[in-house]
From TrEMBL:
Binding site for NAD(+): G154, A155, W156, K180, P181, S182, E183, G256, C288, E388
Originating organism: Neorhizobium lilium
CDD domains found in the cross-reference section: ALDH_F9_TMBADH
Family designation: Belongs to the aldehyde dehydrogenase family.
Active-site residues annotated for this sequence: K166 (charge relay system), E254 (proton acceptor), E254, C288 (nucleophile), E465 (charge relay system)
Record-given protein name: Betaine aldehyde dehydrogenase
PROSITE patterns: ALDEHYDE_DEHYDR_CYS, ALDEHYDE_DEHYDR_GLU
Positions with a binding annotation for K(+) 2: L248, K458, G461
Cleavable signal peptide: none
UniProt-listed InterPro entries: Ald_DH/histidinol_DH, Ald_DH_C, Ald_DH_CS_CYS, Ald_DH_CS_GLU, Ald_DH_N, Aldehyde_DH_dom, BADH
Length: 491
């Protein structure tokens, strides 16, 4: 392994424009997943820190909301420029935080965060426009107004991206944010806060506090918080939505999935295999929208499986800081244990292990490495076909007919994403029309540019991130009726 840069932040939290420490909070050790070494130590926010962050946000927000959208947007676009200029440094930090290979983080993490600041910084000039409603002599107009203090709570798979995907639309719309990253990946969001302030963001508008499942509720239950946006698992989503309902906060829920990816016999098979591999092995399988149930039409099953096996066994696993590495470790020891236990279930429940299934022996040290794994002959009732594994485990299921596969694809509580590979354009649109998911792909998989809404249906959540749609979730409509004639009262 290459020598690692020092990444200990000057304080655990970033509040009101500066780093803040309170060592009374529970110690959180940040481990580099490739070696298990401690790379930073932070403390969970105490109730006093939570109060301080929310108070700073509440104080700063009205003045920010009163600025012109163009002026707000200019600061966000400057932040995007700084992120791009520091892409290498931020990508290395993201790799240390998550264990994802630098080959990925350099193209997918700070850059997608920068896209978000650039996009929302640009569209906000018109994105909050209202409407004029003629009513005969009278008329009405609508305006979009910010919500106030918004809370963002992140998962550990895309720490910088999540911090930006929540922060950019919230700030663009005129809100303030308090963001809590996952306890597994505390570092990236602090850098985003630093960069926003360097770009000219007034103090108090983007605060980061550390913490875990005990800290989150302090934010979610706070009466000065108007909105909570969570990226996390379905069980956490249920708890957070229930707590937010206490005083009717706005909520966005970006939760888990068990998404179907359907490959018809006429598909470009190499493309479909590439899509299935990206949709199962990118980020060591730790992607919410992954197409983890790969339905392959029976006629092409053997060809699909043999080429998939060959390509999967060529994936290079190792030092995430090495540009040639294609797959790094999992984020934590616990997450790897969880994935290994699912692999055991796959074996005992009768799926065919096509490749992988264990810990690779070509990587030394204490890293949380795992082999990219493919199970074939998976059936709908197997645990590995029903539950979100959140690791590099692809389940291949066979099917015969279109109607059959649509029904089976939809037979899940989740509804985050879905994909279809076919050369028949009519079928492609017919099938996606019937699939129950929030984000769908035809002849590709997992691409999420900022211009396009992203989010789930069913138990995978509600609300949308990215695109103009995200602004609706960080603002509300105010309607004004304008009476132009004397009021005629019957009494
Ligand atoms: P998690 O649900 O364990 O934790 C998510 C966040 O919620 C963490 O910051 C955690 O500290 C916090 N939290 C936990 N309990 C809480 C509570 N009661 N109140 C408030 N906050 C609480 O999820 P994870 O293990 O960090 O991430 C993996 C999950 O996230 C997977 O299910 C994955 O599918 C999902 N995910 C979804 C998306 C999406 O956009 N839909 C993106 C990435 C990850």
């Amino acid at each position: 392994m290459k020598a690692q840069p020092k990444v200990q932040p000057p304080g655990s939290h970033f509040i009101d424009g500066e780093y803040v420490e309170d060592t009374a909070g529970t110690l959180i050790e940040s481990l580099y997943p490739a070696t298990g070494e401690v790379i930073a130590r932070v403390h969970a926010a105490t109730p006093a820190i939570v109060e301080r962050a929310i108070a700073a946000a509440k104080r700063a927000q009205p003045e920010w909301a009163a600025m012109s959208p163009t002026a707000r947007g200019r600061i966000l676009k400057r932040a995007a420029d700084i992120m791009r200029a520091r892409n290498r440094e931020l990508s290395e930090l993201e790799t240390l935080d998550t264990g994802k290979p630098i080959q990925e983080t350099i193209v997918a993490d700070p850059t997608s965060g920068a896209d978000s600041f650039e996009f929302f910084g640009g569209v906000i000039a018109t994105g909050m426009n209202g409407s004029y409603i003629p009513l005969g002599g009278d008329w009405a107009y609508t305006k979009r107004v910010p919500l106030g203090v918004c809370v963002g709570i992140g998962a550990w798979n895309y720490p910088q991206q999540i911090a930006c995907w929540k922060g950019a639309p919230a700030l663009a719309a005129g809100n303030a944010m308090v963001f809590k990253p996952s306890e597994n990946t505390p570092l990236g969001a602090l850098k985003i806060a630093e960069i926003l302030h360097e770009a000219g963001l007034p103090k108090g508008l983007y605060n980061v506090i550390q913490g875990d499942r005990d800290t989150g509720p302090l934010l979610v239950n706070h009466s000065d918080v108007a909105k909570v946006s969570l990226t996390g698992s379905v069980p956490t989503g249920r708890k957070v939505a229930a707590a937010a309902a206490g005083n009717l906060k706005h909520v966005t829920m970006e939760l888990g999935g068990k998404s179907p990816l359907i490959v018809f016999e006429d598909a470009d098979i190499d493309s479909a295999i590439g899509g299935a591999m990206l949709g199962n092995f990118y980020s060591t399988g730790q992607v919410c929208s992954n197409g983890t149930r790969v339905f392959v039409q029976r006629d092409i099953k053997q060809e699909f499986l043999s080429r998939l096996k060959e390509r999967t066994e060529k994936i290079s696993i190792g030092d995430p800081m090495d540009e040639a590495t294609q797959m790094g470790p999992m984020v934590s020891f616990d997450q790897r244990e969880k994935v290994l236990s699912y692999i055991d279930k796959g074996k005992t429940e009768g799926a065919t292990l096509l490749t992988g299934g264990g810990i690779p022996n070509n990587v030394s040290g204490e890293g949380y490495y795992i082999q990219p794994t493919v199970f074939a002959d998976v059936t709908d009732e197997m645990t590995i076909a029903r539950e979100e594994i959140f690791g590099p485990v692809m389940c291949v299921l066979d099917f015969e007919h279109e109607d059959e596969v649509i029904a089976r694809a939809n037979a899940t509580e989740f509804g985050l994403s879905a994909g279809v590979f076919t050369a028949d354009i009519t079928r492609a649109h017919r099938v996606v029309d019937q699939l129950e998911a929030g984000t769908l792909w035809i002849n590709t998989y997992n691409l999420c540019p900022v211009e396009m809404p992203f989010g789930g249906s069913k138990q995978s959540g509600f609300g949308r991130e990215n695109s103009l749609a995200a602004l609706d979730h960080y603002s509300e409509l105010k309607t004004v009726y304008v009476g132009m004639a004397p009021v005629e009262a019957p009494y």
